[in-house]
Amino acid sequence: MNDIILELRGVKKSFGQTEVLMGIDLTVNRGEFITLLGPSGCGKTTTLRIISGLDMPDGGSIILEGRDVTYIEPDKRDVNMVFQNYALFPHMSVEENIGYGLKLKKRPRREISDEVEAALLLVQLEGYGKRRPNELSGGQRQRVAIARAIVNKPKILLLDEPLGALDLQLRRQMQIELKRLQKQLGITFIYITHDQEEALNMSDRVAVMREGRFEQIGSPAQIYDEPKTTFVAAFVGNANIIAGIAGESGDGNIAMLHSGGSVRAALRDKTVPHGQLLTLAIRSEQIEIARDSGQESGLRGIVKEKSFAGGMLRIAVELGSGEEIIVSRHGINSALKEGERVVLDWAPGDAVPVEDVGP
Amino acid sequence: MKNRTVLPNLYIGVLLALTYVPILLVIIYSFNASRISSMWSGFSISWYGALLRDRSIFDALRNSVVLATLASVCAAVVGTLGAVGMSRVKWKANGAVEYISILPIMIPEIILGMVFIVFFALIGIPFGFPALVVGHTMFCIPYVFLMVKARLAGMDKSYIEAAKDLGASELRAFYDITFPLLRPAIISGMLLSFAMSMDDVIISMFLTNAESNTLPLKIYTQLRTGVTPKTNALCALMFAFTLLMGGLSFWVGRRAQNRD
Amino acid sequence: MTENTRKARGLRAIHLTVLPIYLTTLLFVVGPMAYMIALSFMTRAERWGVTAVFTIDNYINIFQPIYLNTFVQSIRLALLSTALIALFGYPFGYFMAKLSPKWRKAVSFLLIVPFWTSSLMRLYGWIIIFRANGTLDGILMGLGITGEPLRLLYTYPAVVVGMVYVLVPFMIFAVYSSAEKMDWSLVEAARDLGASRLQAFLTVSLKLTLPGLLSGVILTFIPSMGLFFIADILGGNKVVLVGSVIQEQLMRSRNWPFAAALAAMLMLMTTLFIYLYRKITKVKDLEGLL
Q1: How many other CB atoms sit within 10 Å of the CB of residue B190?
Q2: Do the chains contact at B167 and A89, CB–CB below 8 Å?
Q3: Taking CB atoms and an 8 Å limit, are B8 and C91 in contact across chains?
Q4: How far apart are CA B208 and CA B225, in angstroms?
Q5: How is chain A split into domains, by residue range?
Q6: What's the rounded Cα separation, in Å, for the pair C118 and C140?
Q7: Pick from A329-333, B114-118, B218-222: least confident
Q8: What is the pTM of this model?
Q9: Which residue among C17, C28, C127 places its CB closest to the CB of B138?
Q10: What does residue B24 show for φ and ψ, rounded to 5 degrees?
């Protein structure tokens, strides 16, 4: 049994007329790296601010190590935050910034300077203590913000899109470093991002949020390979979504009947009654594409457009129904021409039946 | 290409120079040996000596400095608290109070002087120093208020949140974060208040009594009744002081900018 | 602890911060203004003071030719001064925004210094210039342009010069702050699309700096209605403005209700202008001034 450090129970929050959180539940285990992933405006930052105490929920409760802290002021919670824009105090040196929390706890000066020194070492900023925040680069500020939070040994560290302002290369590097820090310190991290790659890379668990609700919570593998809904499939895996009617396939899988033809999918533990609407998620790289030569199985369509991006060739295929399916391949060459008739198919295990919740 | 900017720059230069002509003339004539100030009759610094021996000018100067200090300090307290408070306490009347509170610098001074004199007589604020302090404070508050407000509007809210997150109480966060960040704005507001108070004629004219003459009033009386180069000497010294203050506030402003 | 108790406690402490400005505003701005309006409807007592007898005579009195005339004269002077200030100040502010950042800083410093200097000292400088056989006469007669002293001191033009001189920085800073924010590439775009320099200025630059010009007009027009001491010092007793009449009624005639009516009238006109200012420019703060 896991050791639970934080629990959210039915947390609700509205700003004026807009309901931002519609009663969310979440349990976080000690020492875990959990990421709240979702598009902007999905309520992830609000969730973080409620955990930190900067915002009060309208309903529900927050339990930190068994204690109800719902209405406890942020300064009385053992939870620290790394702000999106870092929020380093511009009138204080790096040292003063990092030592601020300890100073408020009235620790002896000697001890503070030792802890600050150790924290600087930890984020690889030895010797930068006397500088002002405006004398640092973006990446260095980021490290100071992290050091300022972890020096207080919080029970939970909250990170609000901490890498959002950095360029891609620095981001990758910081991802690795953050993960290392988390392992080394054993502090529970609650991390926010809208970047699915970042979430899948770093987290023990990912909670996908959408419009004030959790859509799916699970390990990166679960989220990626077994999306529960069309939203998770599209947002996390950039998967194609195809809808048709469920039918008999005769081999333990389920068939999907579509105006473009019929394809199969593994049922897994789901049951879909025949004749019902069935929605499948299939990732672009798992689709097999071939010239139409009268195959029995598969969806028929026409190659509409080819483009090359990120080392992958993207082929857009328009089905007879007007739906567009993206197929991707490594490399830049493809024998297929635009306007050519093709058939799409896949291994049944690669297509996942998902709940249709809209895009 | 070049001569496109020559004319505009010349215009700026000429107008700036014209701005300083009256000031320079006053200073030049402070070194005039003659008592009749319209005739130049040789260089002398004797008027500065006469100025230093004049008790009544010293009293007026002291009154003005004490008054301007008190008014700008009171204005700093009320204006800063008001601007910070209004950003936190969202009362319905905030907009109206803000609009009314800056009226003293928006309406002609004569109206403010007029309403102060009748109202102070009504509620019994004694004319002279007490009335001057209240009156000057009221037209200084808007300067501090507006400066602090502008600074607050440009200030990142997450600084305060970060402080609270790190364990600071509301009061502590204000003391450690908000106040230091607002300090340049408060100081500029106070310097402006101080200068405005030091320069005020109209309000002071209404609120003063025989015992509490201010420096501008003293100069005003002399300008209307007859000036001696002693007045020039006084003005020259005041100008030097202003230059000092101006440089100081410019420096404070620059430092604040560098920080961001 | 529930949310309500936390809110209530937090509120009480923070209330104290807005209290001073609410109280001072109520007591020393709203109170005096309200009393002035009340006073303007009261009757002057036989010997000294006022009696609370309602009358509108004070307002009727304003329409006596002698007082009406001062209003007309004040407005005329204010309009003339404001027009000249706009004429001189607008190009200054506009050109200033085109300077390099370094020069902009220098020029604004040079502008601020006189602005901070005692206005009486600066007016005194003009007395030296204008008085008979003063600096101006010296130059003009020395060059042989005029044969005798012009006697400009204590004339209407002297007052206008004083007004323009004291108030022009307000206009410059207001225009400058809006010209500085302007996107100059828009002017280039207009030129590129075939506008002459004048056309580009009229259709783009002027339109975009109009808020600055308007706020400059309001910022100079309003104080110019009340700066009676400039008229006093440079105009002697030849130019009588509303401000002087109010002062005289207050200090010498001791007719407070009438002074209040005059001030209320002036206030009404001013409020109208402030209202227009906010309506037209949608600017709330006096950033141009500060």
Answers
A1: 24
A2: no
A3: yes
A4: 19
A5: 4-230, 231-353
A6: 28
A7: A329-333
A8: 0.81
A9: C28
A10: -65, -40
Is there a contact between A104 and B259 if contact means CB atoms under 8 Å apart?
no
B44 within some domain? no
**Among chain C residues, CA nearest to A73:** C6
* φ and ψ at residue B149, rounded to 5 degrees: -60, -45
Measure B33 CA to nearest chain C CA, in Å: 16
Q: Please give the Cα distance from C148 to A13 (Å, whole number).
A: 84
Tokens of A321: 């129904």
All residues of chain A having their beta carbon less than 8 Å from the beta carbon of residue C3 are: 56, 70-71
- Counting every residue, how long is chain A? 359
Nearest chain C residue (CA) to B219: C120
Helix axis angle, C156-181 relative to C119-130, nearest 10°?
130
Asked whether the predicted pLDDT for residue B193 surpasses 70, the reply is: yes
CATH fourth-level superfamily of A4-230: P-loop containing nucleotide triphosphate hydrolases (3.40.50.300)
Does any CB of chain C come closer than 8 Å to the CB of residue A121?
no
What CATH number is given to the structural domain containing B225?
Answer: 1.10.3720.10
Closest by CA to B238, choosing from C166, C114, C127, is C114
Please write the tens of the pLDDT for every residue from A211-253. Answer: 999 999 999 999 998 899 999 998 888 889 988 888 877 777 8
Topology, domain A231-353: OB fold (Dihydrolipoamide Acetyltransferase, E2P) (2.40.50)
Tokens of A36: 């709240």
pLDDT greater than 60 at residue B259: no
Residue with tokens 């719902």: A70
Interface test with C, best of A67, A71, A72 (most C CBs within 10 A): A71
Distance from CA of C25 to the nearest CA of B (A): 5
Q: What domains can you pick out in chain C, each with its CATH number? A: 59-281 (1.10.3720.10)
Q: What is the CA radius of gyration of chain A?
A: 25
